[in-house]
Amino acid sequence: MTDLLTVTDFTFAYPDQPATLKHVDLSLPHSQITLLFGQSGSGKTTLLRQLDPALRPTGTHTGTVTWSPDVTVRPHQLQVGFVQQHPDTQIVTDKVWHELAFGLENLGVPQDEIRVRTAEMAAYFGIHQWFHRDVSTLSGGQKQLLNLASVMVLRPALLILDEPTAQLDPIAADDFIHTLVKLNQDLGTTILIAEHRLDAVLPLADQVALMTRGEITVAGSASKVVQALYADHHALTAELPAPTRVYAATTGLRRADNLPLTIKTGQQWLANQSLPVASHFAPPAEPAGKPLIRARDLWFRYDQDGPDVLRGVNLDVYGGETLAIVGGNGSGKSTLLSLLGRIYQPYRGHINLAGKRLARYADAELYHHNLGVLPQDPQSLFVRSTVREDLYEVIDGHRQRTTPAYDLEMSKDAAVSGMADLTGLTDLLDRHPYDLSGGEQQRLALAKVLLLRPRVLLLDEPTKGLDAVNKGQLGDILTQLHQEGVTIVLVTHDLTFVAEHADRVGLFFDGQLATVQPTRRFFAGNSFYTTAANRLVHSWCPDAITVREVSTWLHATRS
């Protein structure tokens, strides 16, 4: 098969920085889906941007990026279409229909052709149902679908996507990935996608490439890459689909030609094992004692004449617990977290923290040692030109003096050094925060919040943009905080992370909390809002919710 694009011996360095890409070789075959994955900061985004002339970063390079000679970009078309991680950063107009037409207008396409092409694309993507809506009223999934449609209406020769599902809920993420497959099958679009969510993408990719420290270290079929990861004892095996990890833990990959990559193929393998149907794990305990946070009858809207985003929400959070809140994009999860953090005030209802109305706390009392808030956009916390200075900023600078933000006898240098070590930032202290990868920025924002030593930590999508290694490190940090008695409330789409670290789970739907349950009970009772591990073995062991638990149960049935 001929290649649409070939990258040969490509090396790239940002100004005054060591090489980010090193001797990269990668071919993108015509009409195939190529999955690029690797740890945060491995160079994935830099490589993707090298392939789009409009986004190519400043720096020095050697090597070549060569297009197939039979690629002809006609007038009013793009060579490369690029969909980014954050849905809002790519949207430039206020109406859906105008967003679809905007790129065509910039290319000078006649109005009659614009109408035809936008109508066709809106119908294909199902956007015709909200064609005239304000972009601000769309959910995250709808915004990302609009971004994809706005790129595809320009008929690019190559579609590149940089972690496009990072901010989508599980159902919206699956829908988005299946839309990409439909594009590939219906139009023959060549697709290059960088993604950490391998459960959905790995089984659908024609080619998989692993990037490690700026190099493509292995590329080929999914089966070949999986075998290479396990042979190398690579940490990113933790990012592979749950059926693959269970199979590897149970069989040692003795039959890699039959490797299960999906729930369907995993269940087909398990169906031949003659497994008993039984509960294996103890029932979860209910929380005890008085709530540390009590929210009652919360109502909130962003505009006086706008719709209610929260409608009569009641919530108890117990001291020392980790509570996860999940639900669809736009359901109200982040809004509730903002009210708990007193970023916004409800127009009806109230919140108590440790028996005192949240509204009655002075700012210095509330945000020093009581509440720590990690927002969804980590860049909103960055105010200095280096990581080091940003860490010192949150504790009132380098000068060793007692302030509300820093009242320890420990030297500030020791505090910053220890926090940088804890969050994996030691080698990045002299970098500009905006030059960090998405995962590295997330860790920097968390480090700034933790330097204030809060007893209640509010986290909005803390795992987005993190690979399995960094996610594991974050989980270790939260486990340590949990053991020290810190109360944690996190809003997230990462159900696997929730299953491993949360004591209870709340499901948000239509501005209300539909339920709050102990984690195991919550996942065992759901079909879609549950983990891939639970879906895999639900017919045999419905209360197993993590890959570790499934593997433990399988070993127990065989002993």
TrEMBL record:
The keyword Nucleotide-binding is assigned to this record: yes
Domain ABC transporter: 5-238, 293-535
Source species, domain of life: Bacteria
Primary location group: membrane
Keywords assigned by UniProt, alphabetized: ATP-binding, Cell membrane, Membrane, Nucleotide-binding, Translocase, Transport
Family of this protein: Belongs to the ABC transporter superfamily.
Protein's name in the database: Metal ion ABC superfamily ATP binding cassette transporter ATPase
